[in-house]
Design a protein that fits this description.
Shape: globular
Mean pLDDT: 92
Structural class: alpha/beta
Largest sheet: 9 strands, mixed
Low-confidence stretches: none
CATH topology of the largest domain: Rossmann fold
Distance between the termini: 53 Å
Strand order of the largest sheet: 2-1-10-9-11-12-13-14-15
CATH architecture of the largest domain: 3-Layer(aba) Sandwich
Number of domains: 3
Length: 548
Amino acid sequence: MTRSAQTDSFVHDRLPPVAERPQMRYDLPELRRLQQASHLNLVVELLDKAADKGFAHRPLLRSPTLTLSYAEVRERVDRMAQVLTGDLGLVPGNRVLLRGGNSIEMVLAWLAAVKAGLVAVASMPMLRAKELGEIIEKAQPTVALCAANLVEELQLAQARHPALQRIVLLSGAAGQVTLASLAAAQTGSFTPCPTAGDDVALMAFTSGTTGQPKAVVHTHRDVLAACEAWPRHVLHATPDDIVMGSPPLAFTFGLGGLLIFPMWAGASVYFPDAAYTPKVMAQLIHDTGATICYTAPTFYRQMAVCMQEEAARRAEPVRLRLCVSAGEALPDATRELWREATGIELLDGLGATEMFHIFISAAPAEVRRGAIGKVVPGYTAKVVDDEGAEVPLGTVGKLAVIGPTGCHYLDDARQLNYVKAGWNHPGDTFVQDADGYFFYQARTDDMIITAGYNVGAPEVEDALLKHPAVAECGVIGQADEARGMIVKAFCVLRPGFVGDAAMTRTLQDHVKASIAPYKYPREIEFLEKLPRTETGKLQRFKLKPQTS
């Protein structure tokens, strides 16, 4: 093992004990090379070596006002890294809190921190002072790099958490001391930190579908290994691709899809000036010539009509060729709606912050109705019972995964819930068929057992979404004296429909006609909106208290 270059051992000292860590497998030739490398700095591999691959003068980062090539990004990143290690006095292993939306300035700061051997701790833009304070207490960053429009909540958090000593704005008005102004005064190149493969590159906080975020640690090797799995064997991006999407960079789905994987392929990424709406994204897909899109199923569903409208009013056909869906279960109803609107088959994937990115997926040409896909090369997956024994094909059980990435929580007893006997347990129930396809049933804690029958909430949601009145829905199990649990649905209706007793009966009959009648929602509540995380995941735990 190569000796760590991170002189601050704070994170290393708080990793799980060796016995509680996942087994790491490097079964592909590309992965074995990463395992054997004496030093690995992921920014060196993806950015500094871009010139060797012929990418130096190709575009990497795009916005409405700026386009930067790989060479130009490297030059700016080197200047920022000099500021971090010089002006700000940070040393390898120090944590840096990053707070900003999806933007070029946010990307540059992230790359600079990781190239300097620091641990990048990106935070969701919508977090408030209380939540930011929890991150500060856990990660103990001394410096934060923050977008000017998001600094107020961070300052409130800083006042309560003195571990954060300094906030530096990413950019600002002329005369302000910012990361950009300090970097502009630097000259020369930057010598990257000679990090070992198992040195820590980033800390990602889970998006909180359970209300209890955890700090997930990933190394330089983890991130590069992820590039050699799903992107190489399923995505097949090219240097000519232009990528866009809505997942935040603080979410590993967004970090991989909107930065790491495009860089690995020599592609470019477009960042808008403002937050995406379905209409804006549909317009920009046409305007920018985007070829790959990443977003959540809910957003694809909302965007389908917008894509049809844009296509109808434009002479040139859209260049879009790949649409990646992840973050939550993809209902077949949404897949069909998107295909009808665009002619494109959604590329579904199951991933986890704990695993960095997608490990079960299927290319569009290999889609099987109702299935997420097969295990991605480089990983092994199985469906197991409560004791960890593999169950027969066609049987509902819990997913267990092993591969070149795995769960390492920072100083958290819940490590024992996720990693068991070296296998990662993401907390999902699945069925695997004889051809190796995995069919998602529900989150383990979202499986509804009613009168002895197992009912997966996503299956009921998919049935409801196929009714023209339903825009969004969430399904939970509600305690019931007679049946143990009943299926309860929360529905957001489309404009023009009324959530009354007649609509309840209509939707119940629709579900009974679509799937096994015992799965129908015995109660339906109509809401104006559903609780979701910033990444678009449905927060079912916020629905459950309403039924108590």
